[in-house]
Amino acid sequence: MTSERFFGDTILLVEDNPDDEELILRSFRKAHLANDVVVARDGIEALDYLFCRGKHLGRDPKDLPRLVLLDIKLPKMNGMDVLKEIRANQETKLLPVVILTSSDEERDLLQSYENGANGFVNKPVGFEEFNETVKSLSLYWLLVNRPPGKASE
After folding, report:
1. 8 DSSP assignment
2. Beta-carbon-side half-sphere exposure of residue 8 (alpha carbons within 13 Å)
3. Is pTM, for the whole model, over 0.70?
4. How far apart, in whole angstroms, are the C-alpha atoms of residue 64 and residue 11?
5. How far apart are CA 33 and CA 46, in angstroms?
6. How far apart are CA 14 and CA 63, in angstroms?
7. Which tens digits make up the pLDDT trace of 46-99?
């Protein structure tokens, strides 16, 4: 990562299921998180956002999200391939990426970590448990965790 890059306060949510998207956004609001959330509904759109391509061409390429929440099963390009692209790029390889998925397959868990995920979280089925999981996840990654290049505050 070059010294010109920085992790902003935006969350990139990569989620194709509108119901899960709404639950996650509602959980953020319930946890009183003020971070901007950008939603990408497929793998290509996520990479377009990160690499300032397509409809995100005018976005500041130096401003990386603070956190990427990435589903595995996505249209156009699956989450594992998105993760590989993020890790293969010098500018995004240190970006915090957490897999947030309904999959409980051991191979998905192992493959996520092998490809460089910082975390793997199963989406709970129940509404309250879902809220608590997203709240805990976001509080850790947004308030406790210190990403590379972020000065202590």
Report:
1. -
2. 16
3. yes
4. 9
5. 21
6. 17
7. 999 999 999 999 898 888 999 999 999 999 999 999 999 999 999 999 999 999
